[in-house]
Specification:
heterodimer; A: 116 residues; alpha+beta; Alpha-Beta Plaits; four-stranded antiparallel β-sheet; 5 strands; disordered C terminus; B: 145 residues; 6 helices; 41% helix; 23% strand; elongated
Amino acid sequence: MKKFEHEVIFCIVNAGFSDAVMDAAREFGARGGTVIRARGTANMEAEKLFGITVQPEKELVMILVKSAIKEDILHALYRAVGLNTPGQGIAFSMPVDQVVGLSEAPIEPKAEEQAE
Amino acid sequence: MSEAITKKEKTPIRARAARAPRGSKRIEQVTAPHKLKLLFTIVNRQKAELYADLLQAYDVNMQMFLSAQGTASTEMLQYLGLGDDEKVVIASIIREDLAADALHMLEEKFRTIKNGKGIAYTVPMSGTIGVAVYQFLCNHRGDRV
């Protein structure tokens, strides 16, 4: 079984919540992400039946991370922008087998850590 | 009757296998179909066409451009208006045996092209449907020239 060193996390949230996604991901070591505007589609019949509307404007955030921190980030995203939050987000990850262009410089410590 | 037919069909195959030992030329000619990968390339919007053209040299027949925005971590650059966060995600379908070469080329271009920094990664594809679609995606021209 091939072991993948990196994973790409896709997180689909309501428009305007991409910053919340990145804030949650950065806490666990993610560096940066890419936001793609998207349009969600929902089952119209189900929407009528349940009397809810699904906001069609979505943002798809792609975050490339090391496999070691993937689980932590997915849990953080679930807590911060999961389906039970206004962000109504879903997140999933896919294996990435080859990567180029990532900077390997260490992440700068947070302000509180620097003060210590 | 049907048993007789199957026996007749089986004999020549066995005979061929006996004549052609493992590793011989006849067996090597049979090649497995190429596996495909999804190559994501994220670059500045001005350089999107350039990178798409470069990738087409690696038997890439289909590319999708997605307008995107980078999540700039350097806030000061944003305040100064220097942050170039307008990006394009180029999703290309590429043959597995050519993916490594394409990534090496991209790595070099990311380093050498001014304002051309980006990242690229490949994701394995597990399936596709339709022979014509597959041949188009892996640029298998066969006898068509």
